[in-house]
Amino acid sequence: MNELVLTLGWLGIYAPMALGAAASAIGCSIAGMASIGAMTETDGGYGRFVGVSAFPSTMVIYGIVIMFTLNRDVTPENAGGLFGIGILSGIALMYCGIWQGRACAAAINATKEKPEIFGLALAPAAIIEGFGVFAFVFALVISAGIS
Amino acid sequence: MSDPDAYISLISSLPGSERLFVAKQPPLSRLRLDRRLTALKPEDARVLKVLEHALNWSDYDMDVTDAQAIQRCKEALRDIPQPTLRKLFLERMDLRTVVAALRLRNQGGSPPVGAYGVGRWSRHIPANWSDPSFRLETPMPWIKEARQLLDAEDPLGLERLLLSVSHNQLKRHAARHLFDFEAVAIYVLIWNIFDRWAQSNAQDAAKRFEKLAKQAMAGAADIDFEGVSA
């Protein structure tokens, strides 16, 4: 039984990093595909498209920081806490990354027609980033209570 | 439900559908559109072909009968699995059924008994034949204007009204689809409307040119061309 609990603890430590990496990969690929499509239709502003498509890469950074914060000796007493915080923050980061990628793709698709709305079109992606930051910060705060 | 991210690159590589109607020059030719559509999966390309084949008037022979057209629509409906595309297809069929009934009544016809249309209103219309709008003002608020244009014998105005109604229907569905196959199919259907719109404008321009030319020639009857009186 202890082995299973310890395994869950280790899973919780690595989950934010793994799920954050998956989120960034999916999100960046979604936004990246939109920027490639937009480049074939427009005559300029390619750098902006590529820059926007890199937005979801922040999720893996949050995941790495959470992983380092959770990283400690895993004991039967702290394994449950590590598992809960790690898995749930990882899932939150993953959803934020995927949907941020979609929001970025929509922004790229819209700004290829109307470059003047570039800033406003990024607002949904920025708001989603805010939710990712919430998941990140409060994972750090809560993890301070785990022995 | 299609994969929501299936055609991100394809959709992003197409000019916005709104731009089609404001541009002086077509921003995307059919040739270029077809080249972009090669990115579709074979099964999606087949569905799109079926949809266009059933909706485009240019794909119908001049002597096609009502029964043949209805049969083609029913066959198309069997081959379209996406709920949104089925819905917009049926909406277009409803529109065509109502317009067919309006034209029939305008020519003094009696309520149709056999096959004349497809969709949920095909039985409702004969039952309300004497009502000016077939009691369909609520689901189809454009019907009154269509009837007036038909009475005024303004086919171009009617064509534009119907294109505008179809365009609005497509835009309503497009709002729920960003990068999936439905979004691609709706884009192509909007492109087809734009194409028809552009053609109707060209016809309008040709008519106006002919009228002006006649007026000018009438006034020029007495002009002396190179010393030779007309």
From TrEMBL, chain A:
Membrane topology: Multi-pass membrane protein
Pfam families with a match to the protein in the record: ATP-synt_C (PF00137)
GO terms of molecular function: proton transmembrane transporter activity
Domain V-ATPase proteolipid subunit C-like: 11-69, 83-142
InterPro entries in UniProt: ATPase_proteolipid_c-like_dom, F/V-ATP_Csub_sf
Keyword annotations: Membrane, Transmembrane, Transmembrane helix
CDD domains: ATP-synt_Vo_Ao_c_NTPK_rpt2
Localization per Swiss-Prot or TrEMBL: Membrane
Regions that span the bilayer: 49-70, 82-101, 121-146
Any single GO CC term annotated in Swiss-Prot or TrEMBL for this entry: proton-transporting two-sector ATPase complex, proton-transporting domain
Name of this chain's protein: V-type ATP synthase subunit K
Organism listed in the record: Ruegeria meonggei
